[in-house]
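Support case: 3-phosphoglyceric acid complex. Customer-provided input:
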Amino acid sequence: MAIVNMREVALADQRVLIRQDLNVPIKDGVVSNDIRIRASLPTIEYAMSAGARVMLMSHLGRPKEGTNDARYSLLPVAQRLSELLEREVSLIDDWLSGVTVEPGEVVLCENVRFNRGESADDETLSHQMARLCDVFVMDAFGTAHRAQASTHGVAKYAPLSCAGPLLSGELEALATAFEQPARPMLALVGGAKVSTKLMVLESLSDKVDQLVVGGGIANTFIAASGFSVGSSLYEESLVPTARTLIDTIKRRGGKIPVPTDVIVSEALSQDAAATRRPVHQIRTTEMVLDIGPETTQRLTELIHTSKTVVWNGPVGVFEYEQFSNGTETIARAIAESDAFSLAGGGETLAAIDQFGVADGISYISTGGGAFLEFVEGKTLPAVAVLEQRGARGNG
Ligand code: 3PG
Ligand code: MG
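Agent response - structure generated as follows:
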Protein backbone atom coordinates (compact mmCIF):
# COMPACT_ATOMS: atom_id res chain seq x y z
CA MET A 1 0.00 0.00 0.00
CA ALA A 2 1.26 3.41 -0.91
CA ILE A 3 -0.42 5.19 1.97
CA VAL A 4 1.89 7.56 3.84
CA ASN A 5 1.79 7.14 7.61
CA MET A 6 1.78 10.14 9.92
CA ARG A 7 4.77 8.71 11.78
CA GLU A 8 6.92 9.11 8.63
CA VAL A 9 6.11 12.82 8.33
CA ALA A 10 8.08 15.67 9.92
CA LEU A 11 5.45 17.44 12.03
CA ALA A 12 7.43 20.02 14.02
CA ASP A 13 5.89 23.46 13.68
CA GLN A 14 3.55 22.21 10.94
CA ARG A 15 -0.16 22.98 10.90
CA VAL A 16 -1.57 19.48 11.25
CA LEU A 17 -5.29 18.93 10.66
CA ILE A 18 -6.46 15.58 12.02
CA ARG A 19 -9.85 14.10 11.12
CA GLN A 20 -10.96 11.90 14.02
CA ASP A 21 -14.22 10.06 14.57
CA LEU A 22 -15.30 11.63 17.86
CA ASN A 23 -18.93 10.81 17.15
CA VAL A 24 -19.74 9.53 20.65
CA PRO A 25 -22.96 9.16 22.63
CA ILE A 26 -23.80 12.19 24.80
CA LYS A 27 -26.25 12.20 27.70
CA ASP A 28 -27.29 15.39 29.52
CA GLY A 29 -24.38 17.30 28.00
CA VAL A 30 -21.76 14.74 29.04
CA VAL A 31 -19.98 12.07 26.97
CA SER A 32 -21.46 8.74 28.09
CA ASN A 33 -19.02 6.46 26.28
CA ASP A 34 -15.53 7.71 25.46
CA ILE A 35 -14.05 4.64 23.73
CA ARG A 36 -13.63 6.51 20.44
CA ILE A 37 -12.05 9.50 22.18
CA ARG A 38 -9.57 7.30 24.03
CA ALA A 39 -8.75 5.42 20.82
CA SER A 40 -7.81 8.75 19.22
CA LEU A 41 -5.49 9.89 22.02
CA PRO A 42 -2.25 8.20 20.89
CA THR A 43 -2.46 10.01 17.54
CA ILE A 44 -3.14 13.38 19.15
CA GLU A 45 -0.43 12.95 21.77
CA TYR A 46 2.10 11.86 19.16
CA ALA A 47 1.42 14.94 17.00
CA MET A 48 1.60 17.29 19.99
CA SER A 49 4.85 15.84 21.28
CA ALA A 50 6.30 16.11 17.78
CA GLY A 51 5.70 19.86 18.04
CA ALA A 52 2.79 20.08 15.59
CA ARG A 53 0.12 22.79 15.68
CA VAL A 54 -2.76 20.35 16.06
CA MET A 55 -6.29 21.01 14.82
CA LEU A 56 -8.85 18.25 15.32
CA MET A 57 -11.98 17.82 13.21
CA SER A 58 -14.93 15.48 13.73
CA HIS A 59 -18.63 15.15 13.14
CA LEU A 60 -21.18 14.47 15.85
CA GLY A 61 -24.57 13.01 14.98
CA ARG A 62 -26.45 14.07 11.88
CA PRO A 63 -27.38 17.77 12.25
CA LYS A 64 -28.99 19.74 9.44
CA GLU A 65 -26.18 21.37 7.49
CA GLY A 66 -25.91 25.15 7.53
CA THR A 67 -27.03 25.63 11.15
CA ASN A 68 -25.08 25.43 14.42
CA ASP A 69 -27.50 23.30 16.39
CA ALA A 70 -26.29 23.28 20.02
CA ARG A 71 -27.58 19.73 20.48
CA TYR A 72 -24.83 18.57 18.14
CA SER A 73 -22.04 20.74 19.52
CA LEU A 74 -18.69 19.05 20.18
CA LEU A 75 -18.38 20.97 23.48
CA PRO A 76 -18.85 17.84 25.65
CA VAL A 77 -16.16 16.15 23.55
CA ALA A 78 -13.77 19.11 24.05
CA GLN A 79 -14.39 18.82 27.80
CA ARG A 80 -13.71 15.09 27.86
CA LEU A 81 -10.60 15.55 25.71
CA SER A 82 -9.34 18.23 28.13
CA GLU A 83 -9.72 15.77 31.02
CA LEU A 84 -8.01 12.94 29.19
CA LEU A 85 -5.13 15.06 27.86
CA GLU A 86 -4.87 16.96 31.15
CA ARG A 87 -4.81 20.30 29.37
CA GLU A 88 -7.36 22.76 28.06
CA VAL A 89 -8.69 21.86 24.59
CA SER A 90 -10.63 24.84 23.23
CA LEU A 91 -13.52 24.39 20.88
CA ILE A 92 -13.30 26.71 17.86
CA ASP A 93 -16.71 27.75 16.53
CA ASP A 94 -15.57 29.65 13.52
CA TRP A 95 -12.62 27.82 12.06
CA LEU A 96 -12.94 27.61 8.29
CA SER A 97 -11.21 30.94 7.62
CA GLY A 98 -8.18 30.05 9.74
CA VAL A 99 -7.13 28.76 13.15
CA THR A 100 -4.29 29.92 15.39
CA VAL A 101 -2.52 27.17 17.32
CA GLU A 102 0.92 27.17 18.92
CA PRO A 103 3.39 24.30 18.34
CA GLY A 104 2.64 21.42 20.72
CA GLU A 105 -0.89 22.72 21.31
CA VAL A 106 -4.26 21.30 20.25
CA VAL A 107 -7.69 22.74 19.45
CA LEU A 108 -10.95 21.11 18.41
CA CYS A 109 -12.95 22.51 15.49
CA GLU A 110 -16.73 22.56 15.94
CA ASN A 111 -18.82 19.83 14.23
CA VAL A 112 -17.82 19.53 10.56
CA ARG A 113 -21.45 18.76 9.68
CA PHE A 114 -22.48 22.32 10.61
CA ASN A 115 -20.82 23.33 7.32
CA ARG A 116 -22.90 23.35 4.19
CA GLY A 117 -21.37 20.97 1.62
CA GLU A 118 -19.79 18.55 4.11
CA SER A 119 -21.92 15.52 3.16
CA ALA A 120 -21.82 16.36 -0.54
CA ASP A 121 -17.99 16.35 -0.48
CA ASP A 122 -18.18 19.92 -1.81
CA GLU A 123 -15.08 21.15 -3.63
CA THR A 124 -15.05 24.69 -2.22
CA LEU A 125 -15.44 23.43 1.34
CA SER A 126 -12.74 20.79 0.76
CA HIS A 127 -10.32 23.47 -0.47
CA GLN A 128 -11.13 25.66 2.54
CA MET A 129 -10.29 22.80 4.89
CA ALA A 130 -7.12 21.95 2.98
CA ARG A 131 -5.91 25.55 3.23
CA LEU A 132 -5.94 25.35 7.03
CA CYS A 133 -3.04 22.90 7.10
CA ASP A 134 0.37 21.76 5.92
CA VAL A 135 -0.44 18.14 6.72
CA PHE A 136 -3.84 16.42 6.70
CA VAL A 137 -4.10 13.28 8.80
CA MET A 138 -7.04 10.95 8.22
CA ASP A 139 -7.50 8.95 11.41
CA ALA A 140 -11.30 8.51 11.50
CA PHE A 141 -11.68 4.83 10.63
CA GLY A 142 -15.30 4.96 11.81
CA THR A 143 -16.08 7.53 9.09
CA ALA A 144 -13.78 6.17 6.38
CA HIS A 145 -16.79 4.80 4.45
CA ARG A 146 -18.08 8.37 3.93
CA ALA A 147 -16.82 10.40 0.97
CA GLN A 148 -17.36 13.78 2.61
CA ALA A 149 -15.41 17.04 2.61
CA SER A 150 -13.62 16.35 5.91
CA THR A 151 -12.82 12.69 5.13
CA HIS A 152 -12.26 12.70 1.38
CA GLY A 153 -12.27 16.11 -0.34
CA VAL A 154 -9.73 17.67 2.01
CA ALA A 155 -7.36 14.74 1.43
CA LYS A 156 -7.28 15.53 -2.29
CA TYR A 157 -6.12 19.13 -1.78
CA ALA A 158 -4.06 19.27 1.42
CA PRO A 159 -0.33 19.84 0.73
CA LEU A 160 0.35 16.38 2.20
CA SER A 161 -2.21 13.73 3.17
CA CYS A 162 -1.48 10.71 5.32
CA ALA A 163 -3.06 8.09 7.57
CA GLY A 164 -3.01 8.40 11.34
CA PRO A 165 -1.99 5.51 13.62
CA LEU A 166 -5.57 4.60 14.56
CA LEU A 167 -6.65 4.28 10.92
CA SER A 168 -3.48 2.31 10.06
CA GLY A 169 -3.97 0.01 13.05
CA GLU A 170 -7.55 -0.72 12.01
CA LEU A 171 -6.51 -1.49 8.43
CA GLU A 172 -3.72 -3.77 9.64
CA ALA A 173 -6.10 -5.71 11.90
CA LEU A 174 -8.58 -6.10 9.04
CA ALA A 175 -5.78 -7.29 6.75
CA THR A 176 -4.67 -9.88 9.33
CA ALA A 177 -8.21 -11.21 9.54
CA PHE A 178 -9.12 -11.11 5.86
CA GLU A 179 -6.09 -11.17 3.57
CA GLN A 180 -4.41 -14.41 4.59
CA PRO A 181 -6.31 -15.56 7.64
CA ALA A 182 -5.04 -18.35 9.82
CA ARG A 183 -7.56 -21.17 9.37
CA PRO A 184 -10.03 -22.40 10.35
CA MET A 185 -11.70 -18.97 10.21
CA LEU A 186 -15.00 -18.36 11.97
CA ALA A 187 -17.23 -15.32 11.66
CA LEU A 188 -20.11 -14.58 13.98
CA VAL A 189 -22.77 -12.27 12.59
CA GLY A 190 -25.61 -11.35 14.91
CA GLY A 191 -28.18 -8.61 14.94
CA ALA A 192 -31.80 -8.08 14.10
CA LYS A 193 -32.11 -8.46 10.34
CA VAL A 194 -30.62 -10.44 7.48
CA SER A 195 -31.52 -7.56 5.16
CA THR A 196 -29.13 -5.09 6.83
CA LYS A 197 -26.27 -7.62 6.79
CA LEU A 198 -27.01 -9.42 3.56
CA MET A 199 -23.85 -8.26 1.81
CA VAL A 200 -21.78 -9.04 4.88
CA LEU A 201 -23.18 -12.57 4.95
CA GLU A 202 -22.66 -13.04 1.21
CA SER A 203 -19.10 -11.84 1.37
CA LEU A 204 -18.27 -13.95 4.44
CA SER A 205 -19.89 -17.10 3.05
CA ASP A 206 -17.22 -16.91 0.38
CA LYS A 207 -14.32 -16.60 2.83
CA VAL A 208 -14.89 -18.26 6.18
CA ASP A 209 -15.04 -21.91 7.29
CA GLN A 210 -17.81 -21.40 9.85
CA LEU A 211 -20.38 -18.64 9.51
CA VAL A 212 -22.24 -18.44 12.81
CA VAL A 213 -25.50 -16.50 12.68
CA GLY A 214 -27.22 -15.08 15.74
CA GLY A 215 -30.12 -12.93 16.88
CA GLY A 216 -32.96 -12.19 14.47
CA ILE A 217 -30.66 -13.20 11.60
CA ALA A 218 -30.50 -16.76 12.96
CA ASN A 219 -34.31 -16.94 12.95
CA THR A 220 -34.39 -16.56 9.18
CA PHE A 221 -31.86 -19.41 8.93
CA ILE A 222 -33.90 -21.55 11.34
CA ALA A 223 -36.90 -20.98 9.06
CA ALA A 224 -34.73 -21.83 6.02
CA SER A 225 -33.90 -25.15 7.69
CA GLY A 226 -37.61 -25.96 7.80
CA PHE A 227 -38.51 -25.12 11.40
CA SER A 228 -41.17 -22.77 12.72
CA VAL A 229 -39.84 -19.71 14.55
CA GLY A 230 -43.20 -19.00 16.26
CA SER A 231 -43.84 -15.28 16.62
CA SER A 232 -40.15 -14.37 16.32
CA LEU A 233 -38.84 -11.55 14.25
CA TYR A 234 -37.69 -13.03 10.94
CA GLU A 235 -37.71 -12.16 7.25
CA GLU A 236 -39.84 -14.55 5.26
CA SER A 237 -38.84 -13.05 1.93
CA LEU A 238 -35.18 -13.78 2.65
CA VAL A 239 -35.61 -17.47 3.42
CA PRO A 240 -34.55 -18.46 -0.14
CA THR A 241 -31.48 -16.21 0.20
CA ALA A 242 -30.61 -17.91 3.49
CA ARG A 243 -30.87 -21.30 1.72
CA THR A 244 -28.55 -20.10 -1.03
CA LEU A 245 -26.01 -18.94 1.56
CA ILE A 246 -26.16 -22.32 3.32
CA ASP A 247 -25.47 -24.04 -0.05
CA THR A 248 -22.71 -21.64 -1.09
CA ILE A 249 -20.67 -22.20 2.02
CA LYS A 250 -21.32 -25.95 1.98
CA ARG A 251 -19.87 -26.19 -1.55
CA ARG A 252 -16.66 -24.68 -0.22
CA GLY A 253 -16.54 -27.22 2.62
CA GLY A 254 -17.72 -24.69 5.23
CA LYS A 255 -20.85 -24.45 7.33
CA ILE A 256 -23.53 -22.21 8.71
CA PRO A 257 -24.35 -23.90 12.01
CA VAL A 258 -28.04 -23.32 12.69
CA PRO A 259 -29.09 -23.40 16.40
CA THR A 260 -30.35 -26.79 17.64
CA ASP A 261 -31.89 -25.32 20.77
CA VAL A 262 -33.06 -21.84 21.72
CA ILE A 263 -34.34 -19.73 24.62
CA VAL A 264 -37.88 -18.50 24.00
CA SER A 265 -40.44 -16.27 25.69
CA GLU A 266 -43.92 -14.96 24.98
CA ALA A 267 -42.84 -11.44 25.91
CA LEU A 268 -39.76 -9.29 25.54
CA SER A 269 -39.27 -7.49 28.84
CA GLN A 270 -37.04 -7.30 31.88
CA ASP A 271 -38.99 -9.96 33.80
CA ALA A 272 -40.29 -12.14 30.93
CA ALA A 273 -40.01 -15.87 31.67
CA ALA A 274 -37.36 -17.69 29.62
CA THR A 275 -37.79 -21.31 28.48
CA ARG A 276 -35.40 -23.62 26.63
CA ARG A 277 -36.78 -25.43 23.57
CA PRO A 278 -35.27 -27.76 21.01
CA VAL A 279 -35.42 -25.89 17.70
CA HIS A 280 -38.20 -28.13 16.31
CA GLN A 281 -40.51 -27.39 19.27
CA ILE A 282 -40.92 -23.61 19.17
CA ARG A 283 -44.60 -22.76 19.78
CA THR A 284 -46.55 -20.26 17.69
CA THR A 285 -46.84 -17.75 20.55
CA GLU A 286 -43.13 -17.86 21.37
CA MET A 287 -40.25 -15.65 20.29
CA VAL A 288 -36.64 -16.81 20.08
CA LEU A 289 -34.55 -14.43 22.22
CA ASP A 290 -31.27 -16.31 22.72
CA ILE A 291 -29.49 -19.50 21.70
CA GLY A 292 -29.87 -22.50 24.01
CA PRO A 293 -27.15 -24.19 26.12
CA GLU A 294 -26.54 -27.06 23.67
CA THR A 295 -26.00 -24.61 20.79
CA THR A 296 -23.86 -22.38 23.00
CA GLN A 297 -21.67 -25.37 23.90
CA ARG A 298 -21.26 -26.38 20.26
CA LEU A 299 -20.36 -22.84 19.20
CA THR A 300 -17.89 -22.52 22.08
CA GLU A 301 -16.12 -25.64 20.79
CA LEU A 302 -16.07 -24.24 17.26
CA ILE A 303 -14.54 -21.00 18.55
CA HIS A 304 -11.87 -22.91 20.45
CA THR A 305 -10.80 -24.78 17.31
CA SER A 306 -10.67 -21.62 15.16
CA LYS A 307 -7.52 -19.63 14.45
CA THR A 308 -9.26 -16.47 13.24
CA VAL A 309 -12.52 -15.11 14.66
CA VAL A 310 -14.44 -12.09 13.36
CA TRP A 311 -17.33 -10.96 15.53
CA ASN A 312 -20.13 -8.54 14.71
CA GLY A 313 -23.41 -8.59 16.60
CA PRO A 314 -24.93 -10.37 19.61
CA VAL A 315 -26.67 -13.76 19.48
CA GLY A 316 -29.49 -12.81 21.85
CA VAL A 317 -31.17 -9.96 23.70
CA PHE A 318 -28.20 -9.65 26.06
CA GLU A 319 -29.53 -6.47 27.66
CA TYR A 320 -31.90 -8.73 29.67
CA GLU A 321 -30.23 -11.20 31.98
CA GLN A 322 -32.38 -14.20 31.15
CA PHE A 323 -31.52 -13.85 27.44
CA SER A 324 -27.84 -12.93 27.89
CA ASN A 325 -26.22 -16.32 28.47
CA GLY A 326 -25.52 -17.07 24.79
CA THR A 327 -23.83 -13.74 24.06
CA GLU A 328 -21.91 -13.77 27.35
CA THR A 329 -20.61 -17.34 26.93
CA ILE A 330 -19.59 -16.72 23.36
CA ALA A 331 -17.93 -13.41 24.22
CA ARG A 332 -15.91 -15.22 26.91
CA ALA A 333 -15.01 -18.04 24.51
CA ILE A 334 -13.72 -15.53 21.95
CA ALA A 335 -11.74 -13.71 24.63
CA GLU A 336 -10.26 -16.94 26.01
CA SER A 337 -9.31 -18.41 22.63
CA ASP A 338 -5.83 -18.03 21.19
CA ALA A 339 -7.31 -17.14 17.81
CA PHE A 340 -6.69 -13.75 16.26
CA SER A 341 -10.02 -12.14 17.17
CA LEU A 342 -11.43 -9.00 15.62
CA ALA A 343 -14.66 -7.41 16.89
CA GLY A 344 -16.58 -4.44 15.54
CA GLY A 345 -19.95 -2.68 15.59
CA GLY A 346 -21.85 -0.68 18.20
CA GLU A 347 -23.82 -3.51 19.80
CA THR A 348 -20.76 -5.75 19.84
CA LEU A 349 -18.79 -3.09 21.70
CA ALA A 350 -21.63 -2.76 24.21
CA ALA A 351 -21.56 -6.53 24.81
CA ILE A 352 -17.76 -6.55 25.19
CA ASP A 353 -18.13 -3.75 27.73
CA GLN A 354 -20.98 -5.41 29.62
CA PHE A 355 -19.12 -8.71 30.00
CA GLY A 356 -15.72 -7.11 30.62
CA VAL A 357 -13.89 -9.18 27.99
CA ALA A 358 -12.05 -6.41 26.10
CA ASP A 359 -8.61 -7.61 27.21
CA GLY A 360 -9.00 -10.99 25.51
CA ILE A 361 -10.00 -9.64 22.09
CA SER A 362 -7.04 -9.14 19.76
CA TYR A 363 -8.46 -6.03 18.10
CA ILE A 364 -11.60 -4.04 18.83
CA SER A 365 -12.57 -1.83 15.91
CA THR A 366 -13.94 1.68 16.46
CA GLY A 367 -15.95 1.32 13.26
CA GLY A 368 -19.62 0.45 12.91
CA GLY A 369 -20.74 1.06 9.33
CA ALA A 370 -17.12 1.37 8.16
CA PHE A 371 -16.26 -2.02 9.64
CA LEU A 372 -19.25 -3.64 7.92
CA GLU A 373 -18.50 -2.01 4.56
CA PHE A 374 -14.94 -3.28 4.72
CA VAL A 375 -16.19 -6.79 5.52
CA GLU A 376 -18.58 -6.49 2.57
CA GLY A 377 -15.52 -6.03 0.41
CA LYS A 378 -16.23 -2.40 -0.43
CA THR A 379 -13.53 0.20 -0.95
CA LEU A 380 -13.48 2.82 1.78
CA PRO A 381 -13.32 6.15 -0.12
CA ALA A 382 -11.35 7.97 2.57
CA VAL A 383 -8.69 5.24 2.37
CA ALA A 384 -8.71 5.12 -1.44
CA VAL A 385 -7.90 8.84 -1.67
CA LEU A 386 -4.90 8.38 0.66
CA GLU A 387 -3.70 5.56 -1.59
CA GLN A 388 -4.01 7.79 -4.65
CA ARG A 389 -2.12 10.64 -2.96
CA GLY A 390 0.54 8.23 -1.71
CA ALA A 391 0.97 6.63 -5.14
CA ARG A 392 1.57 10.08 -6.62
CA GLY A 393 4.14 10.91 -3.95
CA ASN A 394 1.53 13.20 -2.41
CA GLY A 395 1.43 15.34 -5.52
C1 3PG B 1 -20.64 5.98 13.00
O1 3PG B 1 -20.93 6.23 14.17
O2 3PG B 1 -20.97 4.93 12.44
C2 3PG B 1 -19.75 6.94 12.28
O3 3PG B 1 -19.34 7.97 13.13
C3 3PG B 1 -20.40 7.46 11.01
O4 3PG B 1 -21.52 8.24 11.30
P1 3PG B 1 -22.62 8.48 10.15
O5 3PG B 1 -23.29 7.16 9.92
O6 3PG B 1 -23.57 9.51 10.71
O7 3PG B 1 -21.91 8.95 8.93
MG1 MG C 1 -8.21 -14.05 22.81
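The longest strand covers residues 15-19.

Case will auto-close in a few days if no follow-up is received.
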